[in-house]
Design goal:
single chain, disordered C terminus, disordered N terminus, two-stranded antiparallel ribbon, about 550 residues
Length: about 550
């Protein structure tokens, strides 16, 4: 027999448990009843308003209870939602896909798109092959997703095979497929193929132009990117540049210091009312920085409302590259005050700035603070510290730093140390460092040339001659310098003894005539005393 208190407690607990059981049973019946009354359009409506994974799973459960667990249309919607929600999960999306006995092209495309966006990218290709084996024909939406996966893997062979499939399906000239092919070939650095596909697209849209311009810019064909941008503006196209166009072409303007195009883009942004977001703003800052217009770069920076880490990095780099180290450090303080966390690129910019400004103390303090911000010290950061110490003449401290650092010494680090030896004319240390670089970076002629110059400056002609002979025997050549001039919206480059330009004969003839004119002008002063000649030159100026 239980004590009286326990019996009374049991009487109180049992009715509560019975009451709760009835509530749960009734709720479950209502839940099942509601689920059975809904149709596929109701669930589609609910899924469109889902954001979190828990809500999607709840509706997913209702579709199963309501008898729509094998509905291909709802299945495709669920796959898309699992792949595109706030916390995308391709495992749940794949479970839905695998449970559907009937799969149409829309469903196949959704699962391929998910893998193309989130990875693993190879799985997108595997699913595409399964789609082909199942007998479902690929359509104009299938190929862009699969090509995107190939581009992410930079798998040119598989992408070319897909191009062949598109040709056999009669979709190679389709606008969607054509744009995807242009982007794919550009990602694989096959710009010739990319341009051929671009030229074959008869009804180009803004995506076509953006993909080709971006392809040129990303792969270093800056002149071609600018020429195509001008062609887009002047060729009578019905599409005006959008945000993506400007973001694609601005790196080309920045790297070539094309101030005319850069100013036009900035003016176009203002007149068109395009939002100055972080991507566009950072591109304009980089362009103005490379053109030496710091005040304009700062104006753009101040106008960006939503500044991200890339924007801060560009303005810090802008001040650093022009020797305004104090302002760069002030901007770094502003970055910290804004609540953003600096990354490794920010610290590289700051360390380089301090190195060129001779601010050893400040640079070392920044290097030590990297861990406080959760930034891992990579080999490039250690190389920057070596450059910081070496430029300031602390060669011994730089060598000790190299011996005690936890990462493996690489060519960037020893290259910085060799450069410091050149600045301070330390031949003995330079020879020691150069021997290591000849192993780590054997094809870099610049390493040899630095040591050759040091030998020649010290009058050690035999050592210099031996090193030059070694360069010749190993067929190691230093990249030739070149000059460039912008003419007719095109950048013309001329190297040393370069005869590759199509108008070389006309150019050389013009230069010869200019040379003759200069000789005639100088000949006028041959009869004058030196003082009188200087006086005439001064008065002319």
């Amino acid at each position: 027999m239980l004590p009286m208190k326990a019996q009374m407690l049991g009487l109180l607990v049992r009715p509560n448990l019975l009451f709760l059981t009835r509530i749960i049973f009734t709720s479950s019946r209502c839940f099942v009843s509601m689920a059975s009354q809904r149709n596929s359009y109701d669930y589609t409506y609910l899924l469109q308003r889902c954001i979190g994974t828990k809500t999607i799973k709840s509706i997913h459960a209702q579709t199963i209870i309501g008898g729509f667990g094998e509905n291909p249309f709802l299945g495709a919607k669920l796959v898309g939602k699992y792949a595109q929600c706030q916390e995308p999960n391709m495992e749940d999306a794949r479970k839905v896909f695998d449970c559907l006995p009937e799969r149409d092209a829309f469903l196949w495309n959704m699962i391929i798109q998910g893998y193309a966006n989130l990875g693993p990218f190879l799985e997108a290709l595997n699913i595409y092959e399964d789609m082909r084996r199942s007998g479902v024909a690929a359509n104009r939406y299938t190929f862009p997703f699969v090509l995107k996966a190939c581009g992410a893997m930079k798998d040119g062979k598989k992408g070319q095979a897909l191009h062949g499939h598109a040709v056999r399906c009669g979709l190679d000239l389709d606008l969607f497929v054509g744009n995807a092919l242009v982007a794919f070939y550009a990602k694989c650095n096959e710009l010739g193929a990319s341009r051929r596909v671009f030229d074959m697209i008869s009804d180009k849209d803004i995506v076509s132009w953006n993909s080709m311009i971006s392809g040129y810019a990303v792969n270093g064909c800056l002149d071609s990117a600018l020429v195509l941008f001008h062609e887009m503006l002047q060729g009578g196209t019905m599409y005006a540049p959008d945000n993506a166009t400007l973001v694609a072409v601005l790196p080309a303007c920045a790297q070539t210091a094309a101030i005319q195009e850069g100013l036009w883009i900035h003016m176009y942004v203002i007149k068109s009312g395009i939002e100055l977001d972080a991507a566009l703003g950072s591109g304009l800052i980089a362009m103005y920085a490379n053109c030496g217009r710091l005040s304009s770069a700062r104006d753009v920076f101040d106008q960006i409302n939503d500044k991200n880490i890339v924007v801060w990095n560009e303005i810090i780099r802008c001040y650093g590259m022009h020797g305004h180290a104090d302002e760069a450090l002030r901007m770094f303080s502003g970055l910290i005050d804004s609540g953003l966390q600096p990354d490794g690129v920010i610290f590289l910019c700051l360390l380089s700035t301090c190195s060129h400004a001779g601010m050893v103390k400040e640079g070392m303090e920044l290097f030590e603070k990297m861990g406080d911000y959760g930034v891992e010290k990579a080999s490039k950061h250690y190389a920057s510290v070596v450059d910081l110490l070496g430029r300031a003449g602390f060669l011994h401290e730089a060598c000790e730093f190299v011996k005690n650092m936890p990462v493996k010494s690489g060519k960037e680090l020893y290259g910085a140390l060799l450069g410091a030896c050149r600045i301070h004319n330390n031949i003995e240390l330079a020879e020691e460092i150069a021997e290591k670089l000849f192993v780590l970076d054997p094809d870099n002629a610049g390493r040899y040339i630095i040591l050759v110059k040091m030998y020649e400056d010290a009058g050690k002609w035999e050592k210099a001659a031996r090193l030059r002979k070694a360069l010749k025997e190993k067929n190691i050549r230093k990249p030739l310098g070149y000059s460039a001039i912008e003419l007719g919206c095109a950048l013309h480059q001329f190297g040393v003894e370069d005869e590759s330009h199509p108008f070389k004969d006309l150019i050389f003839d013009t230069l010869e005539r200019l040379d003759n004119i200069m000789e005639e002008e100088l000949g006028l002063f041959d009869g004058f005393p030196l003082l009188e000649t200087n006086a005439i030159l001064t008065s002319n100026n």
